[in-house]
Task: structure prediction
Amino acid sequence: MGLSLIKIEHQDLQVDMERQLLADATNNRFQFGQRLMAYVRKCMGGQKSVKMVVGINAAKASGTVTAASTVATNTVTINGVTFTAVASGATGNQFNIGADDAETMVNLAAAINASATALISGYVTAAAASGVCTITAALPGLLGNAITLASSGSTVAVSGSRLTGGDQGATEKTYYFGSAS
Result:
């Protein structure tokens, strides 16, 4: 599945953008689509001064956590939020040590995906296979490369100090509308 980004740089206030694009926040995709098309028509007609950057085949940054006989108190820190291994009864940002490394990493992924903690929820997702937990930025683009990754203890290793591989897209075009340049 390909990912594309459309970034709109504008000088409107947040409240004005919300009113133009998200008014009545009914989560109705057709109403949002109509509002977005109306906004783009205003841009094309010169009524709005914006810079639009389109990135095709954008990528999400990712990194890995690998388990090797994880013990209680080992930690994995993602974007400044610490997840701690416990023998059993994990709550909050804890994960249970499983019967083997694969189960432990499944438990870590589940804890990450269930976390409601700021800087995790909406920022990253996780999936596990064969004793490796892959952490992926929720959104494509360069910002995912800023998400930090660390571990403590010799039985849990991370792929690097940050997620990597996020980019704006193999093909990127910039368009100016109105008086933007």
User: Anything to note?
Assistant: Residues 29-44 form the longest helix (16 residues). The radius of gyration is 21 Å.
